[in-house]
Amino acid sequence: MLLHAYNNHLDQLTATASRVCNALRQAGIDYRVVGGLAVLFHVQSRDPLAARLTKDVDLAVNRADLNRIAEAVRSIGLEYRHVAATGQIAGIDMLVDAVTPKARSGVHLLFAGERVRPTDLEPVPVLSDPIVADQGILVTSLASILRMKLISFRQRDKTHIVDMDSVGLITPDIEAGLPEALSQRLNQVRAEEAQATGG
Questions:
Q1: CA pair distance 108, 81, nearest whole angstrom
Q2: Using CA atoms, how far apart are residues 52 and 188, in angstroms rounded to an integer?
Q3: Within 10 Å of residue 41's Cβ, how many Cβ atoms?
Q4: I need a labelling partner for 129 at 20 to 30 A (CA). Which of 60, 62, 177, 181 fits?
């Protein structure tokens, strides 16, 4: 039963990503799948049984393309929405179902070259070095997704970093490209995981 639910949700996520990415590709708009789905695709390529399900689809795009993105997704029944920032919660840009818009099932947009939160150590990486996943979906590189997870550094991000590390995706070359502050965070994740597992 659980495996069936897992597969259904994964199929739904992949189908959503494929629909949106195909619409963007046809419009000549650059993008990268980021977030938990990017981690899932990368981990799955190394060890399918180690891939962890995620809740939604996150895309990195260029802010200059926002109007074109909104136009491109109308044909597949989606529309662009912006939820303004409130208190400690950053504003959210997303693509939602035009008929029954729900934030949780929307496609979240992050802007390349911009910080998601003002306190972030670095901005979202620029769109370069894509990896092509199933159905022609462009996924951000391992180096970029690791940086993004180390920048965000919530508990779920730490879990994703452990997942990538456990299947050998965080190579010495990728580590060498990290700035000192992010390298320290990677070491912290590894130390916490070693303590939790008795390693």
A1: 10
A2: 21
A3: 21
A4: 181
Q: What residue ranges do the domains of the chain occupy?
A: 2-141
| pLDDT 10s digits, 78-128 | 999 988 765 555 678 999 988 876 655 679 999 999 999 888 999 999 998
pLDDT, one tens digit per residue, over 119-166 is 899 999 999 877 887 678 999 999 999 999 999 999 999 999 999 999
In this structure, which CATH number among 3.40.50.150, 3.40.50.261, 3.30.460.40, 3.40.50.300 belongs to the domain 2-141? 3.30.460.40
Q: What is the spatial distance between Cα 89 and Cα 67, in angstroms, rounded to a whole number?
A: 24
* Long-range contacts formed by 73-82: CB under 8 A, 24+ apart: 73/20, 73/23, 73/24, 74/98, 75/23, 76/19, 76/20, 76/23, 78/20, 78/107, 81/106
Phi first, then psi, for residue 131 (nearest 5°) are -110, 135
Cα gap 134→52, rounded to integer Å: 17
Q: Residue 15's closest CA among 76, 94, 80? A: 76
User: What is the model's pLDDT at position 7?
Assistant: 60
Residue 35, by phi and psi: left (phi above 0), alpha (psi -120 to 50) or beta? left
Longest dimension (CA), the chain: 52
